[in-house]
Amino acid sequence: MMPQQPLSSDKYPVASQAPDAQRIDKPEEACGVFGVYAPGEDIAKLAYFGLYALQHRGQEAAGMATFENQQVHLYKGMGLVSHVFHHEEILSKLPGDIAVGHTRYSTTGSSHIDNTQPVVVETRLGSLALAHNGNLVNVKELREYLLSRNCNFVTTTDSEMIAIAIAAEVDSGKDWLEAAISAFSHCQGAYSLVIGTPAGLMGVRDINGIRPLVIGTLGSNPVRYVLASETCGLDIIGAKYLRDVEPGELVWITSEGMSSQRWSKKQERKLCVFEMIYFARPDSLMHDETLFSYRLRLGRQLAKESTPDADIVIAVPDSGVPAAIGFSRASGIPYGEGLIKNRYVGRTFIQPTQSMREVGIRMKLNPLKDVLGGKRVVLVDDSIVRGTTSRKIIKALRETGATEVHMRISSPPVTHPCFYGIDTDSQDQLIASTKSVEEIAAHIGVNSLAYLSWEGMMIATGEEPKTFCSACFTGNYPVPVPEMLQRSKRMLEELKAV
Ligand code: SF4
Q1: What number of other Cβ atoms are within 10 A of residue 60's Cβ?
Q2: pLDDT tens, 101-135?
Q3: How many domains does the chain have?
Q4: Which residues line ligand 1 (CB under 6 A)?
């Protein structure tokens, strides 16, 4: 068997390095994936705009691989999609019939150009380009297994291991589909994958479907296919949403159309509920409705559970807006714009001086004095992670003249870290893992604080609770997490597996 070797980035052009990410007080989405099979179309441009719509799923790096018969073209770099692909000329050097794209926020592997995606590896059937959203939990075992097969690694990512596992199976004589299915039997955890090969485009979800992946169609005669993390990646290029890739499903798109198979007998839907609450864009569809509608219902439910006496409901923009509107409609307290977000800021290395302490929060959000002065305010947000940003916002509201601030959160307290592709802090950094609701209220400086109940969150989904992962609220992890990984996020107690 030929040892597998990913193509290192020095063989391909890469964009220059952008400034490091500035941490926000929210869990951060790991990645967005995109794929298109469209002979005769400008596939690089389609993939560019698809990735552009998925930018919220990863701002650290972006990349694209295209297939022109047997030849693969790859371009990737650090920074936003528009930064990496900053000129038409770059896209013009990415011809072909198939494109695979990726936006990245690192959850495993360091933030480095070699860890960007798509990962490209060589096989006896030609190149393979893989884009991954999620995290494997059995990386150690998989690495040992691949080393026992004489495979080599260039990066530190679990995504590279999946690509190498498939390549190793191809090189042992299997075709693309047999190889992929065989490789997935060694992969545990969360993975939504888009994989390009010279023969076709593959879309895959793990057996729990923890991360989303949708299929769209482009045009009618002939039909072209698109794969994207979210439907907003279809809308932007005029593709029509066809359906989700199902948990444990593999779709294979070639010149003969799309075929589907279940690659594992065992499937149990466990969609990440945080995708619905916060990560995915509000205009994306899940369960046949926009997430804006779902988030409105979260706000309504929250108001049913805990409405204080107040004069105005405002949101922490943008993610708290739908829930705040829902809260206002259900409580009868008028909704208003109270915090204005600066939409034009990028990342900066420049730190404010001591005398400019307020710059940090005011760079992003500025309260409206005439709206909030003398008012009792309900402030709605989707989650509290460390509490650092909430504390600063509330201080700014009080300085603006708000007489009372009542904070309402449209999800339950985040008490546990995520191991399935979301970058959450270690457990000891999650404020709700060590403090009671009353203690958090005192810490962030509000008159009252209430979270949506777990039951309320599930009622709002309109789906069976057992079809979701909600481990960061409950500690009930649908895929068992090895002890070594638990230690890496400084778990305070032993995990329960469900
Ligand atoms: S632990 Fe939380 S963030 Fe991670 S997949 Fe489950 S619900 Fe989503």
Answers
A1: 21
A2: 999 986 555 567 778 999 999 999 999 999 999 99
A3: 2
A4: 210, 272-274, 418, 420, 422, 469-472
What is the token pair recorded at 367? 């309260």
Distance of CA 272 from the midpoint of ligand 1 (Å): 5
Contact present, 31 and 54 (Cβ < 8 Å): no
Q: Where are the alpha helices (DSSP H) in 223-288?
A: 232-235, 273-274
% the chain with pLDDT above 90:
78
Q: Are residues 68 and 153 in the same domain?
A: yes
Read off the pLDDT of residues 382-436 as tens digits, 9 standing for 90 and up: 999 989 889 999 999 999 999 999 999 999 999 999 999 988 778 888 999 999 9
* Dist. CA 140–CA 150, nearest whole Å: 15
For residues 199 and 306, membership in a common domain is answered with no
Structure tokens at 241: 């949403």
CA of 335 to the centre of ligand 1 (A): 30
β-pairing, 71-78 with 61-68? Answer: antiparallel
Which residue has its alpha carbon closest to ligand 1 atom 4?
A: 418
Closest ligand 1 atom to the C-alpha of 424?
3
Cα of 275 from ligand 1 centre, angstroms? 8
CA 317 to chain centre: 19
What does each C-alpha distance from 392 to 250, 385, 447 come to in angstroms?
A: 46, 14, 15
pLDDT at 496: 47
* N residues, the chain: 498
**pLDDT on residue 485:** 87
Domain of residue 470 covers 292-343+360-497
Statement to judge: residues 172 and 260 lie in one domain: yes
